[in-house]
């Protein structure tokens, strides 16, 4: 097997290992959200969602892009002791910032609850969740370390298994004893602490890190690379979380609750992207260091093809059966989010299919360009949310998010093309796209005229036609056959 085929095989096998782990995490998380949404109702669930959103935003800020910087720099360090120094510096930076952030968040909890969201009872939820900021940050840093070592299993074990299992066990206990919103917040705290302990144990046991003070920590180089990523990460919060906060400011807590069952459901479309991206980034970083541009092109286009193949059927199902999905999972009180689910699904689909553009730019070291693009996208998102949420509530938030994702991916793709001449998709895939969306339109028309089981059986017919059309128009490349054979042979051996 050639060196490049071996590299693609590592992305393929690592991606599917990660997808298996991520699928378990998403399934457990989905069950947990269903339990919380049905147990608390959409008003109280909206309060917890606001608290968790604030926690997520704070964690991203205290990470300061260091977890991504570690993932990129570790594959480039060769001398003995360099990796130990880098890990020591990263843990020190994140640990210090997370403790400061916890103190600030606890001190400002009352103001956020009473002044910003006009919901005094939210103060206790924010205070409880603030305690988990250091643990949440360390968990994500440990995952960044495993990415730098190009190891999939630690991420699967820490993020995809330990964290969601701990959280759902905690939620189950909360429901049994009737602890309400504060109990749910406590379940999140316990899950983060357990996952952080497991993550730090991995870093200590299985990497170059030890407790001795290194001669050089590479903090300056790490911060130089991570600073733009810190700002990029902070700006990415505008795309992922500001809609929830602005719904809390300009709409009702009930709408926040509905939006926060719709948003996590739509984000399932990113499962394949997240899985392959984890292994893809350090692989492209290595190829860039070796100046192997042709191999970067091949890796990008082939993984994009896999993302399109796996994600498109999910999009079609979410758009055609949006209200049925929400009603089945969360209950009739959340069905009003059907249109928002369809809109968000389109935005996340576009981001999933071409989302390797930003990852590739990161691997190539174009972090400042990414920063500039994220500034523009953040501005677009905030303006659209301000204009649309007061009038259209959660549908307005969904439109703002979708437009912003289209905007940011268009700019990423343009910059990537100008830098490398990489085109995301080849002509056969474009032809297949047109055929697929023609079939999807027919499915939507027929499904709306039917009810119950007959409507769902149509989706199975669509899937069959989709696969047959893919084989006919796109087919399986020789490189893919070699990867599949090598993966199967390795599994048998």
Automatic annotation (TrEMBL):
It holds the Pfam family Polysacc_synt. Keywords: Cell membrane, Membrane, Transmembrane, Transmembrane helix. It is a multi-pass membrane protein. The keyword Cell membrane applies. It comes from the Archaea. The chain crosses the membrane at residues 12-36, 48-74, 86-109, 121-141, 161-179, 225-249, 261-281, 302-322, 334-357, 369-389, 395-417, 429-447, 453-475. One of its GO terms (cellular component) is plasma membrane. Its main location: membrane. It is found in: Cell membrane. InterPro entries: Poly_Biosynth_Transport, Polysacc_synth. PANTHER family: POLYSACCHARIDE BIOSYNTHESIS PROTEIN, PST FAMILY PREDICTED COLANIC ACID TRANSPORTER. This is Flippase.
């Amino acid at each position: 097997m050639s060196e490049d085929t071996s590299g693609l095989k590592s992305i393929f096998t690592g991606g599917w290992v990660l997808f298996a782990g991520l699928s378990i995490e998403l399934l457990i998380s989905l069950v947990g959200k269903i339990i919380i949404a049905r147990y608390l109702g959409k008003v109280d669930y909206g309060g917890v969602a606001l608290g968790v959103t604030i926690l997520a935003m704070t964690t991203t800020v205290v990470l300061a892009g260091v977890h991504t910087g570690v993932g990129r720099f570790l594959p480039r360090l060769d001398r003995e002791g360099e990796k130990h120094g880098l890990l020591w510096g990263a843990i020190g930076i994140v640990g210090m910032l997370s403790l400061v952030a916890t103190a600030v968040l606890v001190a400002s909890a009352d103001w956020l609850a009473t002044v910003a969201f006009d919901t005094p009872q939210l103060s206790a939820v924010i205070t409880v969740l603030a305690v988990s900021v250091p643990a949440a940050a360390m968990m994500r840093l440990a995952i960044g370390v495993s990415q730098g070592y190009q190891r999939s299993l630690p991420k699967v074990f820490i993020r995809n298994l330990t964290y969601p299992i701990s959280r759902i066990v905690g939620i189950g206990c909360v429901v049994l004893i009737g602890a309400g919103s504060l109990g749910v917040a406590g379940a999140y705290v316990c899950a983060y602490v357990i996952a952080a302990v497991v993550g730090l144990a991995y870093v200590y046991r299985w990497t170059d890190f030890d407790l001795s003070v290194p001669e050089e920590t590479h903090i300056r180089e790490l911060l130089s690379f991570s600073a733009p990523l810190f700002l990029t990460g902070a700006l990415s919060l505008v795309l992922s979380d500001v809609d929830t906060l602005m719904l809390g400011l300009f709409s009702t807590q009930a709408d926040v609750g509905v939006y926060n069952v719709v948003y996590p459901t739509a984000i399932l479309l990113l499962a394949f992207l997240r899985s392959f991206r984890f292994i893809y980034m350090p692989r492209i970083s290595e190829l860039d260091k070796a100046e192997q541009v042709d191999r970067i092109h091949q890796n990008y286009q082939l993984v994009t093809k896999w993302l399109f193949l796996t994600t498109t059927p999910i999009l079609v199902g979410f758009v055609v059966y949006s209200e049925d999905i929400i009603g089945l999972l969360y209950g009739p009180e959340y069905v009003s989010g059907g249109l928002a689910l369809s809109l968000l699904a389109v935005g996340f689909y576009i981001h999933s299919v071409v989302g390797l553009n930003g990852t590739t730019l990161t691997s190539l070291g174009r972090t400042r360009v990414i920063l500039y693009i994220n500034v523009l996208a953040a501005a677009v998102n905030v303006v659209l949310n301000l204009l649309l949420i007061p009038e259209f509530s959660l549908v307005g938030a969904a439109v703002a998010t979708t437009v912003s994702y289209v905007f940011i991916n268009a700019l990423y793709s343009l910059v990537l093309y100008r830098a490398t001449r990489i085109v995301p998709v080849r002509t056969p895939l474009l032809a297949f796209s047109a055929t697929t969306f023609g079939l999807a339109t027919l499915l939507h028309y027929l499904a709306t005229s039917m009810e119950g089981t007959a409507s769902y059986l149509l989706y199975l017919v669509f899937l069959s036609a989709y696969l047959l059309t893919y084989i006919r128009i796109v087919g399986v490349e020789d490189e893919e056959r070699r990867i599949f054979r090598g993966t199967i042979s390795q599994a048998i051996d």
